[in-house]
What we know:
Elements lengths: L2 H14 L6 H11 L7 H7 L6 E5 L5 H8 L3 E6 L2 H14 L4 E4 L13 E7 L9 H9 L2 E12 L1 H4 L1 E6 L4 E3 L10 E4 L15 E4 L4 H10 L3 E8 L1 E2 L8 E2 L5 E2 L11 E7 L1
Parallel strand pairs: 1-2, 1-4, 2-3, 4-5
Antiparallel strand pairs: 5-14, 6-7, 8-9, 10-14, 11-13, 12-13
Amino acid sequence: MSDDGDINLRHWDERAGFHLDTPMYREFVARLQAGHDALLPIDDRVLGDVTGLHVLHAQCHVGTDTLSLVRRGAAVVGVDFSPRAIAQAQALSASLGLPARFVVGDVLDLPATLGGPFDLVYTSYGVLCWLGDLPRWARQLAAQLRPGGRLVVIDSHPLSTAILPGGIGHDALTLQHRYLGDGTPERWRAAGSYADPSCATVHDETIEWDHSLGDVVNAIAAAGLRVESLVEHPETFYGFHPALQRGDDRLWRLPPPLHGRFPLTFSLVARR
């Protein structure tokens, strides 16, 4: 693994160790314990019925979405580069009685032991910024699909990640960070976690990459997949800015009059 990968692995191993104890993930687990699932309405808009499907969940983290797909009737393999995340996912699977297979693996160099081909490859929510080689990522995921199989990607819209901290005003956004990536990684340092910013952490440095929507679409098309839909959503999956407002559907939105004017998330469906 590269030095960049080592830095990110230390970051994610640390956070995987406490994420299931944060308010965000306790809510996800409580929904699973109550017989529901933790998937969000954006997932509902694009996934459709997954009953009986053989699914690969790439960058699965601690497995709450993986096990949600199991709850919906799919046979699921979750893969993540963090051994601690996979251990947490395996323990959660056992405690809930929701069987899934979890494998440690780098999404840029997937193990040959995943058991594909798959009907559906699913990856979502905070996944793309960790990838330094988007074309390779797309080829890896495309190779896991059976002919006719689908790739579903849901992630932060690159416009939303360009918003200046404090850049959500009454009727305008202020952008600072890059929308267009040039392949050069950026180093960031932030304590805590998206799941709980107040958590005390040590491994706070990360290496991240910017990818435009064009970068994502072109990488997937070059991997031999046919893009069927690309939808930009005005909601997002967590409150990355204090001005965002959470709705009863568990999604976060810009305050009025900004809501509905700018995208915060996108979903893409492609088929082999």
